[in-house]
Amino acid sequence: MKLKVLPPTLRKNNRYLTLDIKITSAITKDDLVNIIWEACIRFKGECETSNFNLWVMKFYDIEKTDDYYHYKAIVRCQRDFVDSVRSSFALAVKYNGSKLAISTVGLSGTIKASQKYI
After folding, report:
1. Buried b / exposed e along 65-89 (16+ C-beta atoms within 10 A)
2. Which CATH code for domain 14-117?
3. What is the rounded distance in angstroms from the CA atom of residue 17 to the CA atom of residue 82?
């Protein structure tokens, strides 16, 4: 038996955040997932963070300077919780003893549109 696809009216509405990440040590996509989940759980708690529908869609290694590593990423979240997710990212300042700065560069409704911010 073939599964039915949900019609668009019943699907969750997603938004895609383009993030600019600067950190003093090198990280991978898995490290970014840990950073995001820890920041959201610390700020909003487990019950509300479970509603965010967070997912790291793309992860880009941009450059390495003398002071920091520069990355960009596209993160998916549910439309109703965009403000909570953005504020959680702003509060993340350290990861494994390394200084960290995450800022939101752009917000869009599709992955293709969010790639123009990279």
Report:
1. eeebbebbbbbbbbeebbebbbebb
2. 3.30.70.3250
3. 8
Nearest to 35 by CA among 21, 16, 52, 14: 21
Tens of pLDDT along 4-18? 888 988 888 999 999
List the chain domain ranges.
14-117
Give 117's DSSP letter: G
- Quick check: helix, strand or coil at residue 51? coil
Please give the model's pTM, rounded to 2 decimal places: 0.89
Question: Which sign does the torsion angle of CA 87, 52, 102, 41 carry?
Answer: positive
* Ramachandran region, residue 96 (left: φ > 0; alpha: ψ -120 to 50; beta: rest): left
